[in-house]
Amino acid sequence: MYDVVPFDALNVGDRVSMSKTVTEADGALYIAATGDFGPVHIDDDYAGGTRFGQRLAPGIMVAGLCTSVLTAELAGVLGISIDDQFWFTGPVFYGDTLKIEVWIAERHEETRTLIWEGSATNEDQREVLRARATLKYPRKMPKTQ
After folding, report:
1. d(CA 87, CA 68)
2. Whether the predicted pLDDT of 140 surpasses 80
């Protein structure tokens, strides 16, 4: 978990996946840390009147799960995110179990960048998130203590 993975060890097609159940506690911690008190996330009455009919987990929190899987399980901690794009393609409700997949889509030796893509699907196999982002890697390995 959270290894130092050098750029040269990563290849197009490398892929990982994991499952995570999105809990009320996850949402509460995220909302408290960010101040994202949107009523669709916290107010049952308000959310019940939306097209979703119930509260949603914050979408950007779900996006953060993708980046966490990428860093912890595939690309390590050396790459720095320089461009992130997320498409919220379906709702995520508290209690949903998501399958999160991330993979290396492109590798650019000359710029030492990787393009990674990802997706999250719920237990009904419905996609709820797509991602595409760029990681930039250092030319020299950082010194470790």
Report:
1. 17
2. no
